[in-house]
């Protein structure tokens, strides 16, 4: 939805840039909590490791946003207006040309970071609930098996 394409994070091979982004998000969340107890200015002034790690994580997150913005911008310049499927939120914001690149970058970064956090928590909760209810696991498994047979294994049609 954000980029108008799949990121490929469920494949056997994960792009190193995507993995670096995930690692940066993890580090950002890990360093946020300890920073709630001391003023950021103090941490910055003393050069605390938690501060340096936090800044490094955000730099990585913003660099990923920059790469995505540049990639989408190049695609938009190559593709005529009518020849594109759903372009995604980022491309739509760029095409509207109503926000500055910095505002778009900030918005995309927040959406990317928030998407990672909310997806992981929701998935964890879902797996926990399925583990608590084996009967639902069987029901879901039967439903998926029936859909796979009906759609002759075509995953997109199953959806």
UniProtKB/TrEMBL annotation:
One of its GO terms (molecular function) is iron ion binding. Its cofactor is heme. Pathway: Lipid metabolism; C21-steroid hormone metabolism. It is an enzyme of class 1 (oxidoreductase). GO terms for biological process: C21-steroid hormone biosynthetic process; cellular response to peptide hormone stimulus; cholesterol metabolic process; cortisol metabolic process; glucocorticoid biosynthetic process. It catalyses: 6 reduced [adrenodoxin] + cholesterol + 3 O2 + 6 H(+) = 4-methylpentanal + pregnenolone + 6 oxidized [adrenodoxin] + 4 H2O. It is a peripheral membrane protein. Pfam families: p450. Keywords: Cholesterol metabolism, Heme, Iron, Lipid metabolism, Membrane, Metal-binding, Mitochondrion, Mitochondrion inner membrane, Monooxygenase, Oxidoreductase, Steroid metabolism, Steroidogenesis, Sterol metabolism, Transit peptide. GO terms for cellular component: mitochondrial inner membrane. The keyword Cell membrane does not apply. Its main location: mitochondrion. It is found in: Mitochondrion inner membrane. Its EC number is 1.14.15.6. Belongs to the cytochrome P450 family. A cytochrome P450 monooxygenase that catalyzes the side-chain hydroxylation and cleavage of cholesterol to pregnenolone, the precursor of most steroid hormones. Catalyzes three sequential oxidation reactions of cholesterol, namely the hydroxylation at C22 followed with the hydroxylation at C20 to yield 20R,22R-hydroxycholesterol that is further cleaved between C20 and C22 to yield the C21-steroid pregnenolone and 4-methylpentanal. Mechanistically, uses molecular oxygen inserting one oxygen atom into a substrate and reducing the second into a water molecule. This is Cholesterol side-chain cleavage enzyme, mitochondrial.
